[in-house]
Write a structure and sequence with these properties.
Radius of gyration of chain B: 14 Å
Order of helices and strands of chain A: EEEEEEEEE
Strand order of the largest sheet of chain A: 1-9-8-3-4
Structural class of chain A: mainly beta
Distance between the termini of chain B: 35 Å
Order of helices and strands of chain B: EEEEEEEEEEE
Number of helices of chain A: 0
Largest sheet of chain A: 5 strands, mixed
Distance between the termini of chain A: 37 Å
Number of strands of chain B: 11
Helix content of chain B: under 10%
Shape of chain B: globular
Largest interface: A-B, 21 and 33 residues
Structural class of chain B: mainly beta
Helix content of chain A: under 10%
Oligomer: heterodimer
Strand content of chain A: over 45%
């Protein structure tokens, strides 16, 4: 699985959009980009995933660059409950393992 | 509500004792997984099962054992052979994984195991 690089921490004002970047420059053509988040002492929560097209669901939007070497997770209106560690993972479809790196610690500020 | 239930939330083990962590899911998922998370680190795969009565070792299976007698249940036993069992244990499940499947894994809220 390709390695990902994320900033260690970010702050976002409550009500504003949170844009979390992820670099995956060695991604291969059959690897998907997944985003999870983990609130302290809880299990990771699945947010969204995509292959090459932008994706949107009730939680977030995922923007993948045309060359697929980076992506951005967008939380459109951040709330205090969005404070968590966000993980960007790339994985081949069907692979059993999820490789969580150190992620980005997002702090939403009132 | 559909989901994954792990119990207990906190567990303490004495030296030389085996303990079993419970994981139950009502999502009708075929595949189930056990991960271990140490402070400040990512997840490491212990065991996984794609179908009832079948399971495979992950990256760190030594000192652990599992069973998959029912689709809904995938208990993990931490044996006395696991010398450093203190960690946060996470169970996950997903729709059956094929080579072309991109379905995500969904996680329970974990069991925190400590040594007395």
């Amino acid at each position: 699985d390709a390695k990902t690089t994320q900033p260690p921490s970010m702050d976002c004002a409550e009500g504003r959009a949170a844009n979390l970047p992820c670099n995956h420059s060695t991604i291969s053509g059959n690897e998907y980009v997944y985003w999870y988040r983990q609130i302290h002492s809880q299990g990771p929560q699945y947010i969204i995933h995509g292959l090459k097209n932008n994706e949107t669901n009730e939680m977030a939007s995922l923007i993948i660059t045309e060359d697929r070497k980076s992506s951005t997770l967008i939380l459109p209106h951040a709330t205090l409950r969005d404070t968590a560690v966000y993980y960007c993972i790339v994985r081949v479809g069907g692979a059993n393992n999820l490789f969580f790196g150190t992620g980005t610690r997002l702090t939403v500020i009132p | 509500d559909g989901g994954i239930t792990q119990s207990p939330k906190y567990l303490f083990r004495k030296e030389g004792q085996n303990v079993t962590l419970s994981c139950e899911q009502n999502l009708n998922h075929d595949a189930m997984y056990w991960y271990r998370q140490d402070p400040g680190q990512g997840l490491r795969l212990i065991y996984y099962s794609q179908i009832v009565n079948d399971f495979q070792k992950g990256d760190i299976a030594e000192g652990y054992s599992v069973s998959r007698e029912k689709k809904e249940s995938f208990p993990l036993t931490v044996t006395s052979a696991q010398k450093n069992p203190t960690a946060f244990y996470l169970c996950a499940s997903s729709i059956f994984m094929t080579a072309y499947s991109n379905q995500p894994q969904h996680f329970g809220d974990g069991t925190r195991l400590s040594i007395l």
